[in-house]
Write a structure and sequence with these properties.
- The structure is a single chain.
- The protein contains six helices and nine strands; from the N terminus they run αβββαβαβββαβαβα.
- The protein has a nine-stranded mixed beta sheet with strand order 3-1-2-4-5-6-7-8-9.
- Helix 4 links the parallel strand 7 and strand 8.
- The longest helix has 14 residues.
- 38% of the residues are buried.
- Catalyzes the complex heterocyclic radical-mediated conversion of 6-carboxy-5,6,7,8-tetrahydropterin (CPH4) to 7-carboxy-7-deazaguanine (CDG), a step common to the biosynthetic pathways of all 7-deazapurine-containing compounds.
Length: 210
């Protein structure tokens, strides 16, 4: 049972339900192929049926961890820190990102945008989901839009989302891993016909790394 004192610190973003942290190669989107330290925060109610980290959904199964400890670990590995989940914006990201910036680290986030925008970010990857649409404020600040393509209707959803982001946002279509053999040819064809889009692949899975 987590004490009320600990829950208060979690609510303030001074502790976070930490699922895992690891140093690896960014596998997706604009920064693919670059080294980064990943911090995976527990907690998500967006509920994508194809999610490959469903174990992140229940925040109660991941121990509340002091952000000072998280930052100390991260600073030992890389200049680029990627906050992912779960859905990191479930929690107040302000204290964690402020502490990372004090260490002069680059802060990246991968988010569905489904909760109010918090934190200080050098790079924002918005990956919107139909189940729980993004808050309007994040569209103006997203650096990349990454739409996961599971079926043909997702192309329509992708265009709807592309209409909302700012003009500098880079647009990516990424096949959902379990249907990649079916969807990759469709994505390639779509991007060739609509070159404002780029193809994103989960290259870390091809490399067999986290």
């Amino acid at each position: 049972m987590v004490s009320e004192q600990v829950m208060d610190l979690v609510d303030k973003g001074l502790m976070l339900p930490l699922m895992e942290e690891f140093y690896t190669i960014q596998g997706e989107g604009y920064h693919k192929g670059t080294a980064a330290y990943f911090i995976r925060v527990g907690g998500c109610d967006v509920g994508c049926h194809w999610c490959d980290v469903k174990e992140s959904w229940n925040a109660e199964t991941h121990p509340p961890t002091q952000i000072a400890s998280i930052v100390d670990n991260a600073s030992n590995y890389s200049d680029t820190i990627v906050i992912t989940g779960g859905e990191p914006l479930t929690w107040d990201m302000g204290p964690l990102t402020a502490a990372l910036k004090e260490k002069k680290l680059q802060t990246h986030i991968e988010t569905s945008g489904a909760y109010p925008f918090t934190g200080i970010w050098d790079w924002i990857c918005l990956s919107p989901k139909k189940n729980k649409l993004p808050e309007e404020e994040i569209y103006a600040v997203a650096h990349e839009l990454k739409v996961i393509v599971y079926n043909k209707h997702d192309f329509i959803f992708a265009e709807e989302q592309a209409e909302k982001v700012n003009g500098k946002c880079i647009l990516y279509l990424q096949p959902e891993w379990s249907v990649r053999e079916k969807m990759v040819p469709l994505i390639v064809d779509y991007v060739m016909k609509n070159p404002k889009w780029k193809v994103s692949l989960q290259t870390h899975k091809y490399l067999n790394i986290p």
